[in-house]
Structure formats: structure tokens, C-alpha cells
Structure prediction request, 354 residues.
Amino acid sequence: MRRWKIRKLMVAALYGELSEGDKAVLEQQLSKSRMLREEYDNLRAVVSALPTGEKIDPPVDLFPLVMARLQREMKESQKRFLRLSFYAVPLAAVILMGIGFLLWRTPNTRVSTHVAVLSQEQNSLLFETLREALALKAQGDDVNAAVALQTALETHPNDALAGQAQMELANLYFERLKRYREAYEAYRLLKSKYPRVFASNHQNTSRLDLLEECSQEDFAALHLLDAARTRLGPDLAALEEVVARYPGTQVASLALQEMLTRVMEESAPTDHQPLHALEALKDRCTNPVTVAQINLEMGKAYWKEYQDWETAERLGQQAMQSENPQIVAMAQTFLQELKRYEEAENSLQKATSP
Prediction:
């Protein structure tokens, strides 16, 4: 069992939040480690030294296990909860520091970097929550990381680091948990309530646009893309199906990019040009809708990279023959843009010729 899990059991045991089964697990773990036993005995001694009748709750930001209880107390008495937030949390932090009880310690350099960036906000009530969530994320415990952030944000929505916590929560839902409905709501809240934090990373905008597009069908397209990505190897049929089912969408573009990446990884370094990869990908695809979209991508490459308007137009005309109305609309737009650009170039050449 990981140390951070054992330490959560320790704190829960001290404050009466542990079931009989968990007590047995804790005792078994303590019997195996003299160092853990000493930590537990030291913490128990500090709690026992408190005045009779006094009970200092664990910091709301540090222990997801106790958060549910604190929420119940908040509903019963809002004033009492606020008093605990401002006084109990710093006092408990001092006690833990005094006995050297470091709960969330991880060698992960990425986490250390994040914490260093946040160091200027250490007086924030959410500072410890962010540090805890990053540690949990580094350990692969994404669910508890999300629980910690969500609970803390509900408690301190106007904290100095609330925007940063909201962005971290949205990223967790999107990247790691693949819970797209929650991610959609989290990014929308980030944009409306913390616009500066939202604007600080262009990735927030692109993800919100993607989620907005997929929300009409309950994010089925994203789930299908995730399933297709899990099928590794040379077989691209699942990804091709995504492109064919959602032509012209951002999800189709992501699936195409995934297919191109795999084709380039399988090819020699000399063939890593996008146009070569598109040609190789086209040869491996069988669905006519997917092939038509690849033709349009190749047409753009011939037009913008090689100024080969004739080949670009030919590929656009091939896409126009598709039976899919979305592909036809995309091909029409492409050919119209190509024609306008070609006419502008011809006019410029005539105006500058002697």
C-alpha cells in the first residue's frame, strides 16, 4: 500500500472516520513499518495533548477522505465551518509541520515545478489542495485529485488560486478521466468565472470548442475516438471509421492526425513529409468518405506548400464526387477559395508585369 494512502488512514483513525475493516488494514500496515508506527504515535500524542473537548479537524484541502464530513458540517452551520476554515486549517498545518509529518511528498519533477510556480500564493486556502491534487495526479490517483479540487472549489470559489484549481480540474476531466460532460462544464465555468486564467492557455479555447461541437450527441464522437486510439498496430480501420462517421468535424481532424502519426512512425525518416504521409495513408484507406477527406487535405498541401493549383483543383473535384453531402460542401468551399486565390495571383502578376 502506498504511504499516502496509509497516512490518510492514520488521520481518519485519529478523528473517528475509519471503519472496522480499514482499522484492521491500518494496524497491519503499521506493524510492518517501525517508521510509520512512530509517525502515527507522534501524531496521536499531539492530538491527545489538545485541551479536553477540543477537536481540530484535518485541513479541508488535504484529506479527501474527510471532505464529505466537513461538507455536512458546513450545511449544519455555515459560521462554524468558516471559523474552522480560517483557524483550524493553519493550526493543523503548524502541528503537522512541527512533527515532520509530510503528507504529500513526491519526487516527480513536474509536480515540483507546478508547486514552485504556485509558491507566491502560499497564503491561499487552495494552495495545499493544488499541491495535494498534483501529487495524487502524479501517483495516478486521478479520481481523488478531482474530488479534492471539486470540493475545495465549492468551499472557496473566490480564492486567489480558484482559477488555477478550476483549470486543473477541467484538464483532469478531459485528459485523464475522459469524463467529457464534466470537462465541458468545467471549461465553461473557467471561461465565465475566471476569464484571465482561461485566456492564459490557448488549449482551453480549443478544448472548449471541441467539447461544444461534441455536446450535441452526448460526446459520442470523443468516446468513439478514444476507443479507436486504444487499438494499436497497423490496423487503422477503427480510426478510419471515426473520420467517415464525423466528416469535417474536429474529431475527424484528430482521427486523421492520429492516423498520419502512425503512418509516419512506420515509415522511413525520409518519408516524413506531410504530403508523403497523406499519400501513404490514402493508399491504406478503403472508406470513400475518408478517402475524400484525405483528398481535400492533399489538395490543401499542393496548393499552399507547392503552389500546384492544377493538382489541388483535381483533388478537390474528386472530393466533389462523394455521395456524402458534408464532403461535397467542404469540396465546394475548398474549390471556391482556390479559385479566388488563383484569380488574385493572376491579377497581381498582370499588374506587376512589364
